[in-house]
UniProtKB/TrEMBL annotation:
Domain UvrD-like helicase C-terminal: 291-563
Assigned EC number: 5.6.2.4
Lineage: Bacteria, Pseudomonadati, Pseudomonadota, Alphaproteobacteria, Sphingomonadales
Binding of ATP, residues: A26, G27, P28, G29, S30, G31, K32, T33
GO biological process, one term: recombinational repair
Identification of the protein by name: DNA 3'-5' helicase
Amino acid sequence: MLDLSTLNENQLAAVEWNDGPLLVLAGPGSGKTRVLAYRLARLIDATQDKHFKVLALTFTNKAAAEMRERVGDLLSGSLQRTLLTTFHSFAADIVRQHGQHSGLRPDFTMLVDDGDRHSLLEEAIAAVEDHSTRSQLSSERLLPLVNRLTENNVKPDEALSTLEAGGVQETGALASVYRSYRRLMIERNALDFPGLMAEALNLLETRPNVKRQIQRIYPYVCIDEFQDTNQTQYHILCHIVNPATRNLFAVADDDQIIYQWNGASPDRLRALEKDFRVSTIQLPDNYRCPPAVVALANKLISHNFERSEGKLALKAHRPHSEDEVIRVQRFDTFAGETSWVAADIASRPEPYRSNCAVLARTRKALEGVIAALEAQGLSGYLGARKNEFESAPLQWVHAILRLANARSSRECLRKANKAFSALEGIDLDTGDVISAASTMNGDYLRAWIAAVLARDAIAADTRLLVDGPVRALVDRLDFWNFLSSAFAWLDRLPEAAPTQDTIFDDYPSEKATWIELTQEICAQYGRDEVTLHLLLQELDLRSKSALPAAGAIPCFTIHASKGLEFAHVYLVALIEDQLPSWSAVKKGFDSKEMQEERRNCFVAITRTQETLTMTYSNRMDGWAKSPSRFLTEMEVI
Ligand SMILES: Nc1ncnc2c1ncn2[C@@H]1O[C@H](COP(=O)(O)OP(=O)(O)OP(=O)(O)O)[C@@H](O)[C@H]1O
């Protein structure tokens, strides 16, 4: 029996919600994530005699993994009846299963590397006929536009009219580049992240059976952080929720929309109200922050005018403390500011140090903090996304698996050869391997094995690996055996070649990340269900950042800190042009951008559980700077 006694009255009402659309609208630290976990567990507990599954979508793998753990802890066996996954994984499943209707094969790859996206876009630009127009276009300039069109659900054949309506110049050429780019992705059997969403939506729109099947399997749909959905994702939601029952349970905070540049918008909450006629439950009680921080947060956010009507102010639930909760410090230079922050952290005993985090609007400011922490003998951990493995050992493992999955991918073969050359010192010519593959049914991996084994100089240990586990990968897709043998070989490799320089430096940490990610994927799907396609696609959707080293101080951009909480928060570089950003300052006090910057500041300060330290300086990078307007709005200066 599920214990609901720790929930407050509003939380309980949300958890006990049965049928029909509901919006749980609440501020930070009010238990939204908690409510969602309880609601999933309760729904499953109350329908033990039923077989349907509940679908819960999140925006990050971390949030999905945490939610799985919480729901599993609340009700054992509940995960068998829940699909708790990210929006991107869910879309990838749809495309993998039904993409053949749009010309995509199930082994499609993800364009995770920005370099690959730029090359494809350059190809699309090269197809523009008029030379003088073509010379004005660059992938650097056009990629943001392509993203925006895709995220806003603009179909390739609607691009011209959309661009014309937006008053954009060179509309004909831009629309043709957009159409070519979307077509090239399908031809190459490769999708970028916005393209993945767009293709999933396209299948839901054009194949009624696909959406009916999803609606039948998942009669209840829940979504975390609804405010982050872009237009394309919102349309996906509209299709997967059964229109007869409208069982959509959305958890959101309009004051935490900080992905406007990614297509999120306050309009989405208004659309939800209009399209689903949702009931709303608010959770005003804040359990995370000290009352002094709650007071600052309420003051700050009251300056935004584009908020949900009737949104309740945060109500502090934690007791007042006699200790100093809020500190605000001014410095002459940014270097002085970061040195002080680092020294302050270094002077603290445990457990303070293990429970603090430094936040900033930009990664560059955090790099300054990390250097200052190192000068104090501490280390800092930069929480930021990493799309690809970077060490030769992991690049080789990844490239061989990708080649096993897509046997005629020139790009995977090229990457495998490059990494193998770094590891073994043997250069294989990509063109020669491709020519040899023509007598092997075009199987580049089979030809690669033959090319390696034909070399006399190859070490005996490597020969055994290539002739055994790599060959078994080609013949039987035995990738688990390949992985364990490849890692055992890589572990021995530095001993066999002690003179090798830096190529193994990052191997231990990248191997640990690989193991962590594959375990996470197996936990999500069950090891027996993870095919090679699925493993590779899920890896593409996840960040390859190293796990933090023990004792490293977490340094997060505000975007990366969303959903997290820390006992002691240091928010640095609170100056105009940083927070708010330069472009928001340029757009003016009543712009959408300025409101988003205010929400960034709101998200940052509401990560605090015990103390909040805010710092700013008179000069940064040699330029005179003014204190952030948000300090004035919070009435702390
Ligand atoms: N009823 C409650 N009683 C005690 N503590 C609670 C209660 N509800 C939530 N909390 C605590 O408040 C904190 C914030 O909860 P949670 O992370 O679910 O909030 P959230 O609304 O999702 O926050 P954010 O929007 O900032 O991600 C957690 O430490 C949680 O354990």
